[in-house]
Amino acid sequence: MSLSKEEIADWFRQLQLHICSELESEDGKAKFEEDSWERPGGGGGHTRVIQHGNVFEKGGVNFSAVHGELTEPIMKALELNDRNFFATGVSIVIHPHNPFVPIIHMNVRYFELGDGTYWFGGGIDLTPHYVQTDDAKFFHQQLKNTCDRFDANYYPEFKRWADDYFFIKHRKETRGIGGIFFDRLKEDAGHSKQQIWEFVKAVGETFAPTYRSIVSRNKNASYTDSNLKWRNLRRGRYVEFNLVYDKGTKFGLETDGRIESILMSLPENASWVYDFRPTKNSLEADTLNRLIKGVDWAAG
Amino acid sequence: MSLSKEEIADWFRQLQLHICSELESEDGKAKFEEDSWERPGGGGGHTRVIQHGNVFEKGGVNFSAVHGELTEPIMKALELNDRNFFATGVSIVIHPHNPFVPIIHMNVRYFELGDGTYWFGGGIDLTPHYVQTDDAKFFHQQLKNTCDRFDANYYPEFKRWADDYFFIKHRKETRGIGGIFFDRLKEDAGHSKQQIWEFVKAVGETFAPTYRSIVSRNKNASYTDSNLKWRNLRRGRYVEFNLVYDKGTKFGLETDGRIESILMSLPENASWVYDFRPTKNSLEADTLNRLIKGVDWAAG
User: Fold this and answer.
1) Pick among A274, A275, A276, A277 to test the B interface (most B CBs inside 10 A)
2) Residue B161, pLDDT above cutoff 80
3) What domains are defined for chain B?
4) Environment class of residue B79 by beta-carbon count within 10 Å: exposed (0-12), middle (13-18) or buried (19+)?
5) pLDDT of A127-155, one tens digit each?
6) Is B191 marked active-site?
7) Is the pTM of the predicted complex or chain greater than 0.90?
8) Under an 8 A CB cutoff, do A274 and B256 touch?
């Protein structure tokens, strides 16, 4: 039996619940609260938010499965030939308290048109306030392991794509240490639709154990007020990326999406200080130097 | 003798220094620090920033006078026929500490091309964290008085323009209580270039006494932690407007402008809370209800 959009949406919804449960275990205190919403044009979603936990200050794990008719400008922008669309996915951003625990983002999604056109997209990327070599290597190695199970070209290709995508052009800085990013993935000579779906599921399943491992290693690290100030400056950069460049955010704002679900990606607190320059040889200066494209974290 | 671009730039630079001196007097503690910078393509500017004052947490008063060659995409977007440009102006954003002192923004600018095309633009708008009727009426009345000295149509036209421009579409909220906004103002049957310049100068001169009056009335108001939280949420909205909609910011980011001067408009601290809803009948709820277009503050 061929893969149906309902099957994909059901699996994504289960992934959302599973990830929330894993994050609650890691936090030990806060629970996700769920808002269910309907989209006037068709479908809806469940937005799950965790706030003021032991570990997580603010985080969102969104599921949606929406359908309806695309507008002409969007059809044109996406170069599509059919108006009827279905889209489902899970989208996550987690902002931890501790400056030594990284921000993480994941998105897995499926898009289908009435004429049978479809594609998968997604990615996971990590934004440490302080770049730590062991965490960065571990993170990229986990992503590479998942990719390599399906196609040896996936990791190098999708890693480069993430470097290019999660880039704050006006700062000439990457948002964090990248990860993987892919879009418009569909069957080809080497992969069936089912195989791509298995890959997307594997990416989704990589999220919880990978992030929990990084969180648990760092969540009890001690920190100073100066570390918190730097954390908030880095969160400011996160806000800049999401409001200026992030395609999902822009698409949501332009298509009158559910604002609170779209902007749950923004941190509880962010800060901007005029012309801040870290002290020479500080941890902060080291991080800035490492927010560049093309670092081969999974090497060796 | 006809008005030269040097004369305009010199006056803008003096306006910058005058406004900084007025704001320092109002603050009573902090002083502006000046960074002078050169633009690789031609010209430069002086960025003046005040931080951690008695009254002002973070504020910037920028002057620039730049020249060079426009790129093809920008010429096309602005519908221009000459590549050689000159642009000068003063741009201000002030974020006060006290939640009962409003954020203010002003911009006055002049643009000229090698073929003689020119225009003036500008505006002043007020963003109270709490909308207070007396302040709002006073602010709009001052702007109206200035406009009315030059053209009875200016205030109604430029007030409507500000309502439309300073609008956060995705929130369906105005950024604040508006003010005036105008662009591409040049000589016509009713106004010479000199007369328009006198109007632009008058707008610039309206800033300091008007804002000082509002600041001095509110700077000693007592406030609670809950007022500060609300202030930071409203600052979050300010960030959303500036990064998503503000044309000056977008233009600066896209043309590789001096980032620290462009983003000095962002507050030291901003906050986002998932689906925050003010208590019924609270001051916060009252403010939200008044962040709408079309309020005739200068009436009566």
Assistant:
1) A274
2) yes
3) 5-290 (3.40.1500.10)
4) exposed
5) 999 999 999 999 999 999 999 999 999 99
6) no
7) yes
8) no
